[in-house]
Design goal:
By secondary structure, this protein is mostly helical. It contains 6 helices and no strands.
């Protein structure tokens, strides 16, 4: 689990909108080295994703997936029978929906990503614009 967390974090670490990515891209730019922010990010993403797949397979992930699939098939059958009973009685389970706060959060993330990647604005600058108390 730890290896997956580390490789997942590293896969996104070179993103142009992450702090680590901003630092690395700034150092590369100051050193006048040729680079592409997107190429660096995608190379890190692909490499760490491949390493995560290898880690998953080496530590027995494939048999776990097969076992989980068979368990889910049994649970799905049990849920079908249960939901047939619940349809007549009603169900009290909450349903996740897109609420206004969730929509605003998603919109903020999209705005941040677009302003940093497309308009080449600094992530720290954008954070200070939205949250001046920082």
């Amino acid at each position: 689990m730890g290896l997956m967390v580390v490789h997942g974090a590293q896969a996104g670490g070179f993103s142009p909108i992450s702090i680590y990515g901003v630092i690395v891209n700034g150092v590369v730019a100051r050193a006048d080295l040729p680079s592409s922010q997107i190429s660096l990010f995608l190379a890190s993403l692909v490499f760490n994703t491949l390493v995560a797949v290898v880690v998953f397979v080496v530590f027995g992930g494939l048999p776990l997936l097969k076992r989980r699939a068979s368990e889910e098939a049994g649970e799905a059958h049990a849920q079908e029978q249960s939901s047939a009973r619940d349809a007549t009685e009603g169900s009290d389970e909450p349903v996740d929906r897109l609420t206004i706060p969730r929509a605003l959060t998603l919109a903020g993330i999209v705005v941040l990503a677009v302003t940093v990647v497309v308009f080449d604005l600094d992530v720290g600058f954008m954070a200070r614009c939205w949250w001046p108390s920082l």
